Amino acid sequence: MNFASDNAAGIAPEILAAIARANDGQALAYGRDDWTQRLEHRLAEMFEHELAVFLVGTGTAANALALAHLTPPWGAVVCHSESHIATDECGAPEFFGGGIKLLGIEGTGCKIEPDVLKRTLSGRWGGPHHVRPTVLSISQATEAGTIYRSHEIRQLADIAHAYGLTLHVDGARFGNALVRVNASLAEATWKAGVDVLSFGATKGGALAAEAVVFFDPARAAYMAERRKRAGHLLSKHRFVAVQLEAYCADGLWLRLARHANAMADRLAAGLAGLGIEPVWPVEANEVFVALPVATDACLRSAGAVYYPWSSNALSDPISAETVLVRLVTSFATTAEEVDRFIATVASR
User: Fold this and answer.
1) pTM of the entire structure?
2) Residue 218, exposed/middle/buried by CB under 10 A (0-12, 13-18, 19+)?
3) Less Cβ crowding at N or C end of the chain, within 10 Å?
């Protein structure tokens, strides 16, 4: 019963098989291989737009290099105060950005609200004494497992663009979000005003494969040099490209995401049937619940693995007799695993 993270899952069999096939023979290094060229064309087809694409091995690298590229050292990135870039990337955006500042703002369910964003951007910014906001970064799905609909992204994009900011999306769980919102890739990104996307595959079933996607190739000038200088251009680049190629082939990434979401729904419904309701809507593959302390101890004694959580983005406070926990499902989560977890809770 492992619900610690979708990073705890292995590699999707289709992706692992593709890696093995790519291991046969030799290929030019640093992205000059056939897999990379095919992938770039495939992504342009999927997004219905001309793109500039840069592959890296981790989501932290994708976010940090994208933000560093979009933000001057005297600039600032506006984000939710509990976003991954603000809480879980060990200062990587600031490091690669030469000291850029992250401006965290609040929002229920870890979503940035238009009025709060507008109020923040209308404040006192700029030189020579103050940083200047230059990027808005949102997470899709958020750290609370909530999702922005396309019209919500459009609202935020319009505000950001009106104040001269670009819009970046941390899409580590982008597949889980997309299958829930009934929108095309184009509708969920550039048609909604997104300028740059960190397109994640690792959490979705890859080994180590992420892409920074620029919807205006001109904006990506010198990003290749930035990636190389940062040490994130892999020499055996084909093994990153082949993962994403397999991930995108025949809608595999969406099938994997749908399964993870379905397991989260099953888990949430089972717990709700026992009177334990999620504290936020279950919209991707994460379930956040307040467990009675005794139930938490019982689950851990039974071998369940998950993380305790804390957040200021709750509508209602958590009582002292409960513990807030995060339960994450993946493409590899089984119905039996979910049902065993629910049965353990019911046994209390």
Assistant:
1) 0.95
2) exposed
3) C
The single-letter DSSP state of residue 108 is: G
| Runs of H (alpha helix) within the chain | 13-22, 34-47, 59-70, 84-87, 92-96, 114-121, 150-162, 174-181, 185-188, 223-229, 238-248, 252-272, 293-301, 335-346
Q: Give me 338's structure tokens.
A: 């979910």
**Amino acid identity for residue 135 in this structure:** V
Q: Are 72 and 276 in contact (CB under 8 A)?
A: no
CB neighbours of 251 closer than 8 A, spacing ≥ 6? none
Structure tokens at 320: 């002292």
Domains and CATH numbers, the chain: 10-250 (3.40.640.10), 253-346 (3.90.1150.10)
DSSP per-residue string spanning 31-73 = T-SHHHHHHHHHHHHHHTS--EEEEES-HHHHHHHHHHHHS-T
What local confidence, expressed as pLDDT, does residue 314 receive? 84
- CA–CA distance, 90 with 218 (Å, rounded to integer): 30
Residue (of 318, 277, 187, 243) closest to 20 by Cα position: 243
Nearest CA among 59, 43, 216 for reference residue 139:
59
Residues in contact with 122: Cβ distance below 8 Å, sequence separation at least 6, in sequence order: 163
Strands 210-214 and 196-200: antiparallel
Q: Please report the pLDDT score of residue 265 as a whole number.
A: 98
Return the sign of the alpha-carbon dihedral for residues 299, 303, 307, 308.
positive
Distance CA 32, CA 41 (A): 14
**Residue whose structure tokens are 């291991």:** 23
Taking only the tens place, the pLDDT of each residue in 140-157 is 999 999 999 999 999 999
Residues 232-262: tens digit of each pLDDT:
999 999 999 999 999 999 999 999 999 999 9
* Dist. CA 253–CA 179, nearest whole Å: 10
